[in-house]
């Protein structure tokens, strides 16, 4: 640590010493001023030096009581100038007190006391020395008093500006940390949601196809072999989607080929084929003119359909399901229904699937409603925007 920094820190912890320090050069200057004469250097007039030393002692408390010290010092200098003008030293201590008041006190108080002290010192000096108020020596004292107040206010403003800048920098750093944590949390939630959708969908299909293969292994080996082939395909698809999801965590210098493509509505055929291989008949219908979708909307619609069909296959005891894509001017409506029996335990799962659908839709400015139908079965309806606003994106 550098010596000036250590010295500044030590003075900051001992404010009384900092306040007393100006008295030392003041006494030395007073002694030198009384020793300098027209005929050269002579012995100092010690009675004036002795008066200067105690007159500076109130400055030791100028940081604690700036207004009181300033008033006391100005009053003392005015009294000395009026009673014994021949030994009255320059009001340097009063100037230091006025500077301290301006640096620590309010602007109104500083300028009121500063202007009043400047006028009083100038007037008393002019009266005791039989000079004009506009004479050089009188105006010099007026200028010094006003300059001390102005310098104190300038230092006060600089300190306030530095403190405000430091506070803004700390607040900006804190906000950056908060924003970084928020983005990390959102990214973790999004990746967890993707992993849930991928794993729940494919593991559910693998489990169903494994049950079919086990049931048909002896009675119909060919169909059992076909079910095992579907298990292989779904396992490979699950690995591809997991690689695509986890690939988001890859480093920037990873090879682009290490990431699989993100699924879209154009991949619905392979999604439906997996469910049909496990025994669930799925029909896909598109109404309205197909419009280009934002990538986030395309992925969200695919994931909602995937999760809705997974819930249907796992919980609804349904044999048929339908997917309807209705393209509007500004949005696309995704409707997934099944023919599960009334009262089927559709909500028997953990609830992460429905919650994830709501989160996905809300993230891009859409909505999702889900619930049982009066005639039986379950229905999921999602309204998703075709394009995203800049804030949503």
Automatic annotation (TrEMBL):
Looking at the record, the residues that make up the Histidine kinase/HSP90-like ATPase domain are 296-388
- Cross-referenced InterPro entries, in alphabetical order? DUF7134 (IPR055558), HATPase_C_sf (IPR036890), HATPase_dom (IPR003594), Sensor_HK_TwoCompSys (IPR050482), Sig_transdc_His_kin_sub3_dim/P (IPR011712)
Q: What is its EC number?
A: 2.7.13.3
Task: Write down the chemical reaction(s) this protein catalyses.
Answer: ATP + protein L-histidine = ADP + protein N-phospho-L-histidine
Naming one, the record's GO cellular component terms include: membrane
User: SMART domains given for it?
Assistant: HATPase_c
* Coiled-coil region(s): 155-195
What are the entry keywords?
A: ATP-binding, Coiled coil, Kinase, Nucleotide-binding, Phosphoprotein, Transferase, Two-component regulatory system
List, alphabetically, the Pfam families matched.
Answer: DUF7134 (PF23539), HATPase_c (PF02518), HisKA_3 (PF07730)
- Does the keyword section mention Coiled coil? yes
> A single Gene Ontology molecular function, please?
protein dimerization activity
What PANTHER family is this protein classified in?
NITRATE/NITRITE SENSOR PROTEIN NARX-RELATED, NITRATE_NITRITE SENSOR PROTEIN NARQ
Q: What is this protein called?
A: histidine kinase
Give the species this sequence originates from.
Streptomyces regalis
């Amino acid at each position: 640590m550098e010596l000036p920094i250590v010295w500044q820190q030590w003075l900051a912890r001992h404010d009384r010493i900092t306040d007393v320090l100006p008295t030392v050069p003041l006494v030395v200057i007073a002694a030198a001023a009384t020793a300098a004469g027209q005929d050269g250097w002579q012995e100092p007039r010690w009675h004036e030096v002795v008066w200067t030393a105690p007159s500076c002692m109130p400055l030791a408390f100028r940081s604690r009581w700036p207004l009181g010290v300033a008033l006391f010092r100005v009053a003392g200098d005015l009294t000395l100038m009026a009673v014994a003008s021949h030994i009255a030293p320059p009001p340097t201590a009063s100037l230091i007190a006025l500077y301290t008041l301006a640096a620590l006190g309010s602007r109104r108080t500083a300028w009121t006391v500063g202007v009043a002290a400047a006028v009083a010192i100038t007037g008393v000096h002019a009266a005791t020395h039989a000079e004009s108020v506009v004479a050089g020596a009188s105006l010099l004292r007026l200028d010094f008093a006003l300059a001390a107040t102005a310098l104190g206010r300038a230092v006060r403003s600089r300190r306030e500006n530095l403190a405000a800048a430091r506070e803004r920098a700390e607040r900006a750093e804190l906000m950056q940390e908060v924003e970084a944590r928020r983005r990390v949390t959102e990214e973790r939630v999004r990746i967890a949601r993707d992993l849930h959708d991928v794993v729940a969908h494919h593991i559910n299909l693998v489990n169903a196809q494994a049950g079919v293969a086990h049931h048909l292994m002896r009675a119909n080996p060919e169909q059992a072999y076909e079910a095992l082939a579907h298990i292989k395909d779904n396992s490979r698809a699950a690995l591809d989607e997991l690689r695509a999801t986890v690939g988001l965590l890859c480093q920037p210098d990873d090879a682009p080929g290490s990431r699989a493509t993100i699924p879209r509505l154009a991949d619905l055929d392979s999604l439906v084929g997996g469910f049909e291989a496990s025994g669930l008949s799925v029909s896909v219908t598109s109404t309205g003119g197909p419009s280009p979708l934002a990538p986030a909307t395309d992925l969200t619609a695919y994931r909602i359909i995937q999760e809705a069909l997974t819930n249907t296959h796992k919980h609804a005891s349904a044999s048929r399901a339908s997917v309807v894509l209705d393209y509007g001017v500004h949005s696309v409506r995704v409707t997934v229904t099944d023919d599960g029996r009334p009262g089927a335990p559709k909500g028997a799962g953990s609830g992460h699937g429905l919650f994830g659908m709501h989160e996905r839709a809300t993230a891009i400015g859409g909505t999702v409603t889900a619930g049982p139908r009066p005639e039986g079965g379950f229905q999921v309806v999602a309204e998703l925007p075709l394009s995203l606003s800049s804030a949503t994106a």
